[in-house]
Amino acid sequence: MTRRKRQLGFLLQFLSHRYLKVMLYANGPRMLECPCSRSCRRSVSLKCTLIATIGLLLYSLFLYYPSQSIVEKNFDRIYFYFKNVTPLRTLVESDKSFHGHFYISSSIPAILPSKHYHVHEVANSKQLEKRDNINDLSTNNNVYKSKIIYEYISSRDKNNVKFPLTAFDSLYSIQNGDICMGTNNLVLLAMVHSSAKYFQRRHSIRNTWGNINMFKKFDVRIVFLLGLPDDRSTQIQIDEESSKYGDIVQGDFLDTYRNLTNKAVLGLRWIFEFCPHAKRIVKVDDDVFVNIFTLLDNVLNVFPSDHRMIRCFHAKPGSAPILRKGTKWNVESDVFPVYKTWPMNFCYGFFVLETPDVIHELYQAAMTTPFLWLDDVYVFGLLAEAIGGITFSKLNVAYLEGHRALKCFTESKCHSLTAFARNDKLMNNLLSGVVKNYGELVKNLTGSLSLFL
């Protein structure tokens, strides 16, 4: 109680400041401004202070009880500015990926609980230490195993170096750390990167290729990796989904396209912390159907002795252009500014098979490799290049969808392990085609075909 009284005292002290300006943003700019200047009448200043006090006290209450907080889930930005005080952290106004974070000058005491001082894609205290040393790192070529990483570090803006938020802070909104417990023969962990709102896609995967109950001789586990939705009702549904299936891992960041790298790094971290004994890890998107039977046959019999291996739809150095304008995949001008194509190997991330001996190193490399929002290039390109010693190998995966996918999987033994499927009907038809054409393999892996009748 004493601590709360002291915090309330600090709050009232600063709210009485004559130059207080409070700016609230919710799904677009909305501003409540207190023009408490010397020219204002006393009544205006008092009214302004009272309004700001009530608003901030309500916000403080919501933060003490985050499960009830609608404000925290919907306000993208909250700024506190004081005259002659420069904010410690600034945001790019066009960036819409910030969510529920609190930005405040270092001269202002901690009024609200410290667990809510989340900083997304902006240096926190650990990241600031990294930034302080970035000039030393970028000028010392011996620090890096790769010349490419040295060039990448050197080219980035030294005054605005960022690192993945999830490499440092423990940002699990839903953890489900027991998914991989209770098994000593975990052949495959499938980590599905899913958008928070795509409940039906996750349901389709659980009922088709991701049905882990099909396999009796060994264990398979599936995890759906999400960020936070932008509305409370969707989060309630996700909480219910997690309670029912126990296969959701959710990060405490907004689930947006620009946050895919934060999601990917959180996935690496979760595997390292809770599932390091999986023999293989497959990263897959939620709109992809997987021939799980051929995949398991490959893992068990075709390449069981893989070491430091990443198998995927592989882009070789110099084969993929760096897009700088005109598309949604644009990158900043300081990213490899003298290159027109990506100078390192990377994987197109809709389906990537990894050996577990690279997971921890990839996660650790994220702590010293500046942020790039293209998750495929960042994780399977920059991080893989940073740790070195990884072999890339091509997998039989293709961009099949719609009629082409259905034809390949139902009329014959399809050459591809994957196809894009964004609805229940296509998912079910693709699974039926696999069972029909790979009946003997399916029976060997599951023990019976009766499961699919």
UniProtKB/TrEMBL annotation:
The answer to whether keyword Ribosomal protein applies is no
Q: Assign the protein's first listed, main location to one coarse class.
A: Golgi
Q: Which Gene3D superfamilies match?
A: 3.90.550.50
The first-level EC class reads transferase
- Location in the cell: Golgi apparatus membrane
Q: Which GO terms describe its molecular function?
A: hexosyltransferase activity
Report TM segments.
Answer: 48-65
Name the protein family. Belongs to the glycosyltransferase 31 family.
Q: Indicate what this protein is called per its UniProt record.
A: Hexosyltransferase
Q: Which organism is it from?
A: Potamilus streckersoni
